[in-house]
Design a protein that fits this description.
Number of strands: 10
Order of helices and strands: HHHHHHEHEEHEEEHEHHEEEHHHH
Number of helices: 15
Oligomer: single chain
Strand content: 5-15%
Low-confidence stretches: none
């Protein structure tokens, strides 16, 4: 559901409740609250007008949070904060409180009865209390804009998508068997019988409806091979997918419907995107205008955790079979080396002259190598350790600083560990 619909639903529900509950109360529970008409009208009027002003304040607060995150951290972080459901639910409650108060106000002293609806008045007071609590929570959100909290939020998004996308590697033999089986099936794919290209304004692939694509391929006895992966930007005449092994032609509208496009990348089905956000924050902190290597070190903390989780997962998740075990869908997924390039190349380049950053990078790489069992992945990490040494040798650091930079330190500059030579 679109988030902008949340305040609309609150407004509609409060309006319906405001014209229904007071009528039912007058018809079946004609109990006078004992509050004077003038006091009730003043209270309800103040709540209605005050909530409109509070709604404006909260909306402005949301804009400030979004703008601050874009300037201080990364423009790509805006979508993550702007799509916070709490903001939209808060706006909905504020609008509902104002709308419901106005509706109840119409039934105070209805037809000169001098009666103030009791239950409706209590409901307004309850909505006012809830609005106050939500406003306090929104103010707490300003504190949550500190970089440590933001990095943890991004890290949590990454851990969530990794857990949903990849299975844990428990038995190496099973993984190797599945890999050989997939290679055999791919080599036996039938001829390309259908090609689908993208013809529209540039859009980003946000996610695939995997179940829908598998269902379509199963019905046609085909294998759908996606040419683009989640996070790719499609432009005019881009090859989107190919259909193998069947003479039946799938409806292009059904195929396109199963691919979700948008203007911005999201972390859904895209484990690279949280790492991309963390790297953005790290390299922005390393820019000469900001010069904050400690923030870069904190970003590396989250990056290392995500890579350790990826290192213990079966990354060949781009192969999907139907219920009968037949391969039906293939879509591109990053390799282990792709994650290493994304996570470390830019940080290593921009942080080459920072002893603190280089020491933390070394600690992250050594920790990765120690935490994994796959020899190919360990070899890739060790190659990065050698690249890090070459980077330090080519940096502007002096000999004594180079010696310091070639030590491991989980804090960057805090507690040196004896350097362990990687094999």
């Amino acid at each position: 559901m679109s988030l902008w619909l949340i305040p609309m639903i609150y407004a509609a529900a409060s309006f319906l409740g405001g014209i229904t509950l007071p009528r039912l109360e007058q018809a079946y529970l004609p109990y006078n609250s004992g509050i004077s008409v003038a006091s009730a009208q003043a209270f309800l009027g103040a709540v209605a007008s005050g909530m409109i002003a509070l709604t404006g304040i909260v909306f402005t607060l949301g804009l400030v949070m979004v703008q601050f995150s874009a300037i201080a951290y990364s423009p790509r972080l805006v979508l993550l904060l702007a799509r916070d459901p709490r903001l939209f639910h808060s706006l909905g409650v504020f609008i509902a409180t104002s709308t419901y108060s106005l509706s109840v106000l119409l039934y105070v002293d209805r037809n000169g009865s001098g009666i103030v609806p009791m239950i409706s008045g209590v409901a307004v007071a309850g909505l006012l209390l809830l609005s106050t609590l939500l406003f306090a929570a929104m103010m707490k959100g300003l504190i949550d804009l500190q970089v440590t909290y933001v990095l943890h939020v991004i890290g949590d998004k990454g851990r969530e998508v990794i857990g949903q996308t990849f299975q844990r590697v428990d038995e190496k033999a099973e993984i190797e068997s599945k890999y050989r089986q997939r290679m055999r099936i791919i080599s036996e794919l039938g001829p390309v019988v259908q090609t689908l290209r993208y013809f529209a304004a540039p859009r980003v692939i946000k996610s695939f409806d995997i179940d829908d694509l598998v269902r379509q391929a199963q019905q046609a006895g085909a294998v759908i091979v996606m040419a683009c992966g989640v996070g790719d930007t499609l432009v005019e005449n881009t090859l989107l997918l190919q259909v193998h092994g069947t003479k039946a032609v799938l409806l292009e509208t059904d195929l396109v419907r199963a691919v979700h496009f948008g203007f911005e990348r999201t972390s859904e089905q895209d484990p690279k995107y949280p790492i991309r956000l963390l790297v953005d924050i790290a390299i922005k902190a390393l820019s000469p205008a900001i010069n904050d290597p400690t923030t870069a070190v904190q970003a590396i903390d989250q990056i290392e955790d995500l890579l350790r989780r990826l290192g213990g997962r079966d990354l060949d998740a781009g192969y999907v079979s139907d219920v009968d075990g037949n391969l039906r869908l293939i879509f591109p997924m990053p390799r282990w080396e792709d994650y290493l390039v994304l996570a470390f190349d830019e940080v290593r380049h921009y942080g080459a002259d920072s002893v603190q950053v280089v020491r933390r990078l070394r600690s992250a790489l050594v920790g990765l190598a120690d935490s994994m069992r796959d020899s190919a992945r360990i070899a890739a990490v060790n190659r990065y350790l050698k690249q890090l040494d070459l980077t330090v040798d080519r940096s502007i650091l002096r000999a004594d600083d180079e010696e310091t930079a070639k030590q491991e330190d989980l804090q960057g500059l805090g507690l040196s560990r004896q350097h362990r030579t990687s094999s």
